[in-house]
Amino acid sequence: MSTLKAIQFLDNNLFGSLPVDIYLPKLMKLELSSDQLTGGIPATFGNLTRIQELNLYENNLAGELPAELGNLNLVEFVVSRNGLSGDSWRFFSSLTNCRYLKLFDVSSNQLSGVLPPSIGNLSASLQKFYASGCNIKGAIPAHIGNLSSVEYLLLDSNQLTGFIPSTIGKMKSLQRIDISINKLEGYIPAELCQLSNLGDMYLSDNMLNGSIPDCLGELKSLRNVHLGFNKLESTVPLKLWNLNDLLRLKLVP
After folding, report:
1. CB neighbours of 79 closer than 8 A, spacing ≥ 6?
2. What are the residue boundaries of the Disease resistance R13L4/SHOC-2-like LRR domain, all occurrences included (predicted)?
3. What are residue 210's DSSP bridge partners?
4. Which single residue of 61, 112, 170, 251 has CA 20 to 30 Å from 79?
């Protein structure tokens, strides 16, 4: 077993807790998704330093994510749809050590707390950041603009407040942004118009006000724009109607 490199048990009926005394020094992939696992994620998982893919999607895991996960050589980190909790986000800061991380998915947990400024120190290789339905509070940190390689940013269905940071305009690789179903207010920042690769923009179900930036009509890649359930006051910019690839423009409930 000490030479084992991959473990995959998908959509089975595995139950019980994850082992604490695990010794698999060459393990590179651990996928135990859509099972019935309970208990917490052991801090000793931090000793599996060769793991690149850790996928514990859709189980019944609980407790806080251990900071020791930052010891891993992670490329993909998926723990969505569990019962994980904790509001310190201490584990999050530890993941800044994972310099090759491309996928980060903690959606549908009760992590609560606020996103720390260290979000801007995550891997320069990060492409997908999923934290939907986590009961996250507070503002979106301005440091999020440092994630210049992120293509998908999903922070919908949380308790986010404050303004949409203008620094999002620095996320040049962004193709999809979903920050709907929050408590965000203020204007839609014109800096979003700098995202030339943006295809899907979901800002609905917030408290945004002011006008829709005219320059959004210059984003040739836009396909879906959802702005309903806000307090916007302007007319629809004419340029938006002329976008060839636009499939859906939703301004009403």
Report:
1. 41, 54, 56, 57, 61, 65, 105, 106, 109
2. 87-234
3. 232
4. 170
